[in-house]
Amino acid sequence: MKNIISINIKNLRKLNKYTQKQLAELLGVAQTTIANYENGIRIPDAEMLQKMADLFDISLDYLLGREERDSNMRDEGQLIGVYGTELENKENLYKDYLTFLLEGNSKAARELVIEYFEKGLPMGFIYFDIFEKALKEIGSLWESGKIDVWQEHFISEVTLDTMREVKAREKRKKHKSHSVIGVTAGPEQHNIGLKMVLDMLEIEGWNTVYLGSNVPVGSLIKAIDTEKPSLVAISVTMEYHMESARFMIQAIKDKFKESAPKIIIGGGAFNNNPKLWKTTGADEFSSNTDDMLELMEES
Predict the structure, then answer these.
(1) Could you tell me the CA-to-CA distances from 91 to 74, 162, 225 in Å, in that order?
(2) Tens of pLDDT along 57-75?
(3) pLDDT in tens, 82-96
(4) How is domain 93-169 classified at the CATH fold level?
(5) Fold held by 2-86
(6) Residue 282: which residues within 8 A CB-CB, separation 6 or more?
(7) What is the pTM of this model?
(8) Which CATH class is domain 179-298?
(9) What residues does CATH 1.10.1240 cover in the chain?
(10) What residues does the B12-binding domain cover (predicted)?
């Protein structure tokens, strides 16, 4: 249901000619909170939903997509009422996406995602409720020996291509002063989660520099010196790359000292021991992509 709510919040805001900042002030929250609601990353609690319903002079059922206010609005694609039931029934859309990919049908998988994006499914929902869930399931299938490594690579590449297409179609916000460099530790190849976070920030107006894998520490230092980011995000999926992350972080702090950018670390390597991050020297820890996105937006 959260995808329906996010679409309705965004469309109601536009219908009432509010900017995200204006709506945030009226509701007593940060602008980034409104952005998270509209991108389908977070869902308002009961109190916030009631505040919105009162502000927009609508019922809670209407905001939740359980009833239509005006059939003309739905026809114009402005608000989701009964139409929302089609999306609501697709909470497990990632399974359809994954089925196509396991069958080797990348065209059908891509068309499925683009179809729902064009219908109004938020980019945040597509990234975190379709792509991320599908990739987590693929990881489990690979670990249990039910699929071969070539299938994992194929699905990852198709997902990256589809991510690029979704991002290219998404409207970007005005440029902000925030900037971030994203990098994976050493030869770490599992980087789609980090790419998702940077894509979402880029849409929100951040200046993002994605370096990927196998970046020499000296080159990372040069990138920081040139770009002067406020944040550096480091992803570690496999625990045996932890030492590379520690070396990377120490080098950043030794070089820039008090002027060093804030360093956020996260990834699957910390799943079994969340406190392990404290041994890396990072400033903050993120347990998942949503959390990392929120940490960055708050910085």
Answers:
(1) 21, 19, 43
(2) 888 877 877 654 443 343 3
(3) 334 444 456 678 999
(4) 1.10.1240
(5) 434 Repressor (Amino-terminal Domain) (1.10.260)
(6) 234, 245, 249, 263, 264, 265
(7) 0.73
(8) alpha beta
(9) 93-169
(10) 177-299
